[in-house]
# Entry
Amino acid sequence: MTPSMHLSPSVLSSAAQAELVDALVEQGWYVGRGVIDLDLCHALHQELHHMAAHNALDEAGIGRGKQHHLRKDVRGDAIHWLDRESDAQRRYLMAMENLQQVLNQTLFLGLFEYEAHFAHYPPGAFYQRHLDSFRGRANRVISTVGYLNPAWPADGGGEMVLYHPDAPDQAVARVVPEAGTFACFMSDTIPHEVLPTQQPRASIAGWFRRNASMGGVLDPAR
Ligand code: OGA
Ligand code: MN
# Structure
């Protein structure tokens, strides 16, 4: 790690943040290329690669709490929740806290928390089209995805496809998972999927949350 990594205040520049806010308001989604610091992407990628090589990742499932179960036909990634255990994680999470403040100040969303996991998609893995939260139970308000792969060939597959909120057959963006790219979208209106990847694919998926109470029960733990 270089000393400048500690000094550099913003992982996402304020220009990128302003563009992101406008895009969220206008269309419900944002994709920026070359907006996350590449040194940071590299450090996070190394960390995920190390965990994958040592079988330290958990198979991803769907649903929360008791409803949580594995569905390889739905998603094939393996994950690790960010826990602030490295400088790189802390730096990424600080950038997200900063973004949360900007979103609350500009859009009055009342976001109170951010959670995120590393995701490793082995070759052949995908994540079928889905929404990250459902209206009325919208504890996840805004989704974020940061990509960590240093190079991505044209035939590498693994793009994240975003769909139009009102015309779910219409793809509005195809996001190549290359380092530096950051995507952000409304969790309850933007359907999206991860196409089958041809090579190991690394990302960090995260969610800004509101505390939604469900039937008197506080938003359940993941
Ligand atoms: C998710 C998700 C997309 C990606 O984890 O919910 O949609 O590109 N991830 O990793
Ligand atoms: Mn998703």
Summary: The chain has one domain: 14-62+72-209. The domain at 14-62+72-209 is CATH 2.60.120.620 (Jelly Rolls). Residues 10 and 95 are 6 Å apart (CA to CA).
